[in-house]
Amino acid sequence: MPRRKPAADSSSHLRRTIAANAARLMAEDGITDFGAAKRKAARQLGAAQSESLPTNEEIETELRNFLAIFQEDEQPERLRELRTVAIEVMELFADFHPHLTGAVLDGTAGRYARVEIELFADSSKDVEIFLLSNGIEYALADSRGQDVESRLMLDWDGVPIEIDIFPAIAQRYNRRNRARARLAAVAELLKATP
């Protein structure tokens, strides 16, 4: 009589499968939110939302593996391009204390990634006035459920830019435990990008 696998093994396998599918969704469909990717992957696999969901770190590991296998040639070039654009945008917004976050910072940016930048201002209107004064078109984006004062989307020569604007005082703390880097650190990252 064949032995049944322990429940822990099947749960672990399901967790890895959800992580791999979430990574694929992020790389191929341009999903940037880990939570959304893992929930969609779980639904596609018929798993309950609360069942065996992987951590963001597990998905990031799978995403790096996916990019290394399926976007091996294009990913480093795309990452270099996105980090170069990030520096240009951060220089433009220097007065608003820009920080780079997300996939461009952590190196998991694929073909559909956008540059995610955080700005800090007394008012989000200050940033909007700055954009209007410089003739830069933007769109307001939904930021419900976030601690963001305002979210703007820009098109920078075909590269999507997401700008989250926070109150100036928010520079002092790290929201959502997200890694973030200032301009000098991003310039160093660009030098180290293959």
How would you sum up this structure, described in words?
The chain is of the alpha+beta class. 48% of the residues lie in helices and 15% in strands. The protein has helices at residues 7-29, 34-44, 56-70, 74-92, 102-106, 124-133, 183-192; strands at 99-101, 115-121, 139-141, 150-156, 159-167. It has a 5-stranded mixed sheet. Helix 4 (74-92) packs antiparallel against helix 7 (183-192). It is globular. The N and C termini lie far apart (54 Å). The mean pLDDT is 87.
Break the fold down into its secondary structure elements and pairings.
Layout: H1 7-29, H2 34-44, H3 56-70, H4 74-92, E1 99-101, H5 102-106, E2 115-121, H6 124-133, E3 139-141, E4 150-156, E5 159-167, H7 183-192
Parallel strand pairs: 2-5
Antiparallel strand pairs: 1-2, 3-4, 4-5
The overall number of domains is: 2
N-to-C series of helices and strands: HHHHEHEHEEEH
CATH topology of the largest domain, by name, is Beta Polymerase, domain 2
What would CATH call the architecture of the largest domain? 2-Layer Sandwich
Query: Would you state the CATH class of the largest domain?
Result: Alpha Beta
Beta-strand residue percentage: 5-15%
State the strand order across the main sheet. Answer: 1-2-5-4-3
Radius of gyration using CA atoms only = 19 Å
Mean pLDDT: 87
Q: Helicity, in percent?
A: 40-55%
Low-pLDDT sequence parts: none
CATH superfamily of the largest domain: Beta Polymerase, domain 2
Q: What is the subunit organization of this protein?
A: single chain
Q: State the major sheet.
A: 5 strands, mixed
